[in-house]
Design a protein that fits this description.
two-stranded antiparallel ribbon, globular, 113 residues, 3 helices, 7 strands, 26% helix, five-stranded mixed sheet
């Protein structure tokens, strides 16, 4: 089931023509699975931008190691994200625009680029 943040971004993706997958599970080579509210593909960094509604330091480290950017944001004030979605990322806290890539991470939602 989608979180409010994930659902808001699915709707924004439809409005803006962005590929959004929610929820998104990133699995490391060690078999550790980390669930994020959503991933915005083709946005933020090489693998995409992972979205978290609640800050989690370990998820931030995993995201960066996997070549993803990440942001933590509170979407509770948005009923329908629509084109405001891009503004949500710009106002996000704890944003990482990591440009490193680790091709050994699984990329099932956005695909490798």
């Amino acid at each position: 089931m989608n979180s409010h943040l994930g659902q808001s971004w699915i709707e924004a993706g439809e409005d803006l023509g962005l590929r959004v997958v929610a929820p998104f599970v990133l699995t490391t080579n060690a078999g550790e699975s980390h669930t994020y509210d959503a991933v915005v593909c083709d946005f933020g960094s090489r693998q995409g931008m992972l979205l978290m509604e609640k800050w989690d330091e370990s998820k931030a480290r995993v995201a960066t190691a996997g070549g993803y950017g990440y942001t933590c944001m509170d979407a509770s004030q948005y009923k329908r994200c629509s084109s405001a979605g891009v503004g949500l990322v710009r106002r996000g806290v704890g944003t990482s625009m990591a440009m490193t890539s680790n091709p050994s991470f699984q990329r099932t939602a956005c695909g490798g680029r």
